[in-house]
Description:
Keywords: Coiled coil, Membrane, Transmembrane, Transmembrane helix. With 243 residues, the protein is α+β, with helices and mostly antiparallel strands. It is built from 2 helices and 8 strands, in the order H-E-E-E-E-H-E-E-E-E.
Amino acid sequence: MAVVKGSQQERLVIRQYQPWERFRRAVYFLLLIALVGVGGYYGGLYDSMSRIQQLTLERDSLSSELQAAERSIASFTQRVNVLEKGGEVDRKATEGIRQTVKELKAQISTLEEEVSFYKGIMAPSSNDRGLRVSKIDIAALENVGSFRYSIMLTQVADNSSYISGLAAVNFVGLRNGERVILPLRDLDSSVTDLGVKFRFRYFQEISGELQLPEQFVPEQVQVVLQSTGGKAQRVEQTIDWPQ
Length: 243
């Protein structure tokens, strides 16, 4: 080919015409994209399966821990219930023991009082002999103005024979501002005489229930004993009305 001098010549590349080459490259490219897509899909699927397996293991582990915690809570709850029941039993047992001790102390006190009472009768002091008013008890009842009374008479030391006589019981107090003395007969319907007869060797109790009249304010209880016989005695004792 002729070349004009001084003109600029462009270079030409001559290639062999291959119509299937572009198709083949396109196929390769599509295969590559398909491989990448399939690889990404299975890679993601594998990663998801791994994550699911890991999460499943964690869920199973947490479920086991939860069951263990529930068993522990049930065990602690059972122990708490047992301890509460045990505490309730202990409290009841303690209260029972306290009540028993209280009753025993009351019985001991009663026995000591009885021993002192009988000892006073059988082995009194040298100056405490003959007819005596050993004890006067006044206890309020449920009804207003009602009381139970108990007067214990004893024959101390010299009790080889029976002693008899009369006991006059009077209640001293105020009514409408005036001092009055009411005999037991006026307050106890079971007593018909001014004096209550007694006869005993060691002791005798005079007891009953009385009803105080309205507007009467008791202050004292007076007991006068008068025995009969060769060694007659007169004994008088007065106590304040218990508050």
